[in-house]
Amino acid sequence: MPEPLDRFPPTRAAGLQRLADFVPHAGEAYAMGRNTDAGPGGHLAVSGLSPWLRHRLLTEREVVAGVLERHDPRAAQRFIQEVLWRTYWKGWLQMNPEVWTRYQAERDAPRASGLERAVAQAEAGATGIEGFDDWARELVRTGYLHNHARMWFASIWIFTLGLPWALGADFFLRHLLDGDPASNTLSWRWVAGLQTVGKTYLATPENIQRFTNGRFKPRGLATRALPLSEDPLPAARPLPMLEASPPAGRSLLLVTGEDLNPESAFSVAWQPEAIVVMAGGDPGRFAAAAAEDAAMRCAARFDRPARVMPMASHDAIRDAAREAAVDRVVVLEAPVGPMADALERLEAELTEQGIALIRVRRSWDDRLWPLATRGFFKFRERAPAALMADGLRILSSATGISPRRGACPAGASSSRSR
Ligand SMILES: Cc1cc2nc3c(=O)[nH]c(=O)nc-3n(C[C@H](O)[C@H](O)[C@H](O)COP(=O)(O)OP(=O)(O)OC[C@H]3O[C@@H](n4cnc5c(N)ncnc54)[C@H](O)[C@@H]3O)c2cc1C
User: Fold this and answer.
1) How far is it, in rounded angstroms, from Cα 190 to Cα 291?
2) Cβ-based neighbour number of residue 299 at 10 Å
3) 79 is in an annotated binding site
């Protein structure tokens, strides 16, 4: 097995094991240790759950619930907040898809040869900047970087090397096993001063030295981080209304790399006639291999064979629907990104054949995404009440806020290291 998949085995069983191993450390130990990047093999204070969460081999809900079973909500506050960051970014991008369109346009813009060379040098870890070069190589080799290293790397890429942020975001997306259109694009924009307009993140040698246990103290870093700018974004679009559960009747279940855990999304009474798992190509083949795992689980849960097909196999999906004599394909919503685009194209082709594509949204997303209209700290204030309605009552105190009182939480102040 290649090294990344060795450390992150792409099965739900492996994700559950990682969660079980991490839960005892998700309280104060996490809050104390999460900012330190101890280097490859040393990322023990953080969960390393991101590839499983990214593809929903594990759901945010079960991770949060698992942590709350073991910890006092206040002790787990920091960890839960990080999981909520993920949800916040997803919801925000869902309502501001223009940001994803612009990112792709910037990424694909023609490059002068000097830029091409400088990007290649940065990606190869050949800039001569201590730490930065090590993180570039760690990313390519392992498919993972500590959160603080991602922040430092993005800051040095943009402000010291003067490279386009979208090309750095693209480098991350091509190699991170947790590569995510929302978390990645919006975090890079946050560092660049585009996301929280005018506020940038500057990596300093002292901060790097302190939080790498003295492993690195790079010289020659930029000492100022002037925010990048862009044309004003269009107004956020309202979240499209979607079904919360599939309609009754004969359906084909389509599973995608955006949510490889459909067993937990549908009631036991619902039964598809046929199942297709659409594997997405991705770094280290995590999602592709995880699709095989999802197919096995789905076949067992729904008592039907589940076929794995490549991402663009529209004809094969249409044929599978015909073979099963169904006129609807049910899929868990794919958030803004390549899979959502692929589903749009698929929908157009299916519609021509008289087959409907029905998107279903999980209640976690349905309750939380609409709250991501402003900054994260507003989102976090409103999240507890939404989660209480979803049965996670204890989370209200986990974020330090009582949904009834709506009071300001202890420790709610912004931290630059997130
Ligand atoms: C420039 C940059 C790019 C990033 N790109 C991605 C990406 O493509 N995909 C991705 O999942 N995360 C991304 N992050 C966020 C964060 O770095 C990772 O989620 C985290 O490092 C994953 O490691 P972990 O599972 O050990 O996290 P833990 O600290 O154990 O956190 C638990 C979970 O919470 C979520 N989480 C934690 N921190 C953040 C955060 N700052 N923002 C959003 N969610 C968070 C993740 O799902 C994570 O698995 C990026 C951050 C930066 C600064």
Assistant:
1) 32
2) 15
3) yes
Supply the pLDDT for residue 279: 80
Contact yes or no for 150/35 (Cβ under 8 A): no
As given in the structure block, the two tokens for residue 292 are: 């095989």
User: How far is the CA of 3 from the CAs of 6, 127, 348, 416, in angstroms?
Assistant: 5, 25, 39, 32
- Establish whether residue 178 lines the binding site of ligand 1, counting it when its CB lies within 6 angstroms of any ligand atom: yes
Structure token pair of residue 381: 């204030």
144 is in an annotated binding site: no
Question: Looking at the domain that runs over 252-360, which CATH code has it been given?
Answer: 3.40.50.620
Residue 329 main-chain phi, psi, to 5 deg: -115, 125
Q: Ligand 1 mean position to 416 CA, how many Å?
A: 14
**Where, residue-wise, is CATH 1.10.579.10 in the chain?**
106-211
Cα gap 80→85, rounded to integer Å: 9
Kindly indicate whether the domain formed by 106-211 is annotated with CATH number 3.40.30.10. Answer: no
CA distance 245 to 150: 37
The boundaries of every CATH 3.40.50.620 domain in the chain are 252-360
| More reliable by pLDDT, 401 or 255 | 255
Contact 283, 179 (CB under 8 A): yes
Total residues found in the chain within this entry: 418
∠ at Cα 118 (116, 124), nearest 5°? 100
| Confidence band, pLDDT 50/70/90 cuts, at residue 268 | confident
- pLDDT the model gives residue 264: 92
**Nearest-CA residue for atom 5 of ligand 1:** 184
Show Cβ contacts of residue 21 under 8 Å, excluding neighbours closer than 6 positions: none
- Whether the CB of 50 sits within 6 Å of ligand 1: yes
SS3 269: coil
Pocket test for ligand 1, best of 178, 180, 184, 282 (most atoms within 8 A of CB): 178
Q: Residue 49's closest CA among 178, 151, 186?
A: 178
User: What does the pLDDT look like over 90-99, one tens digit per residue?
Assistant: 999 999 999 9
Q: Which two tokens stand for residue 391?
A: 């049965």
66 lines ligand 1 (CB under 6 A): no
